[in-house]
Amino acid sequence: SGKTTTLKQLLLNFSDTVFAEERASWRAVVFLNVITSFKTILQALAKEFESTPDNPRSPADDFVIQLDGGTTARFAEMKIRLSPVLHIESTLVRKLNGGTDWPNAKNGSASPQQPAEVSVRGQAWKKAFQSHRHQSAKANAGDGIDWDDREDPGVILNACRNEMMALWNNQRVRDVLKRQKILLEDSGFFLDQLDRITGRRYVPTDDDILRARLKTVGASEHTFTMTSGPEKGMTWKIYDVGGSRTQRPSWAPYFDDVDAILCLAPISAFDQVLTEDKRINRLEDSINLWIELCSNKILAKVPLILFLNKCDLLKAKLESGVSVKKYVPSYGDRKNDFPTASQCELSAESFFAACSDS
């Protein structure tokens, strides 16, 4: 988890020309992140306010959103007003997946707390957006975006910006998300920046691209030349391999003749389970995988580098009251805060200790 973000940080610091070439593509990913967040918010509000046979609601249970110009809208009306925004999701997903629908959107396994992620394979999605922009004679030479394109998702986001900002800034909405323990990860950053992101001529900043989330599956190869730093002029080749259990058998060919293996483990996932096996805690799986790599005789001479990431999300979870002890019994009665957790069971030392004990 977080492999693509780490790669983006590497490119930004040492081969920044790649960012300039991909900015139009990442703009679409930022839009998708925002739309996914609003879909999650509307699902949470529906659970809270919509009437069902098992849980009938009266009109008095509804809430009113204050819009610009002194107008108001109830939840049902807000859903209608934001329906064009939700419609963009399927359009973007099809384009990211080369014209096919997103399979996870129909499997019913997602929840507001852990919404299903859009996943892409390889780098083809970037080529799809780039080929579209290069075919346009009106594309701006600086950013590769055709601002006159009527199918540009930014047009609809701009038209619905008032409703989007009013919903996100409503305190009652924030209370619902907190009560249902819904964390929006880095999409929360984008929602705080809606005024800028829904602007008609929005172009993602470097920070936006770093925060944009797009899950990759399978293996993809990245080759780039360092443009700065002590390795300037040297060509690097990095293989990004999917970390799910079903994808691990395909790792073997990429371990042959490598200079180093970089492993990323999200310490914020202590309260989550694997998508493939709901019985397995994600933190436990990360530790077990690290043990397997360290004990593999084939990799005995290959440097293994461990990154523990998603620290910001871990901090947010702990501040919202999620208990480490509930999911990691060995944590005991220690303080349930970030400084303590990041130095105990959720630290690099716990990974290395596990290797020593195995």
Tell me what you see in this structure.
By secondary structure, the protein is mainly α. Helix content is about 45%, strand content about 10%. It has helices at about 5-15, 15-50, 75-95, 125-135, 155-160, 160-170, 170-180, 185-190, 195, 205-210, 280-295, 310-320, 325, 340, 350-355; strands at about 65, 70-75, 120, 215, 220-225, 235-240, 260-265, 305-310. The strands form four sheets. Strands 1-2 form a two-stranded antiparallel sheet. Helix 2 packs across helix 4 and helix 11 (about 280-295) crosses helix 15.
Question: What attributes characterize this protein structure?
Answer:
11% strand, globular, two-stranded parallel sheet, 45% helix, 358 residues, mainly alpha
Which SSEs are present, and which pair or pack?
Elements: H1 3-14, H2 17-49, E1 64-66, E2 72-74, H3 75-96, E3 119-121, H4 124-135, H5 153-159, H6 161-168, H7 171-179, H8 187-192, H9 194-197, H10 206-211, E4 215-217, E5 219-225, E6 235-241, E7 261-266, H11 282-295, E8 304-309, H12 311-319, H13 324-327, H14 338-341, H15 348-357
Parallel strand pairs: 3-4, 7-8
Antiparallel strand pairs: 1-2, 5-6
Helix pairs in contact: 2-3, 2-4, 11-15
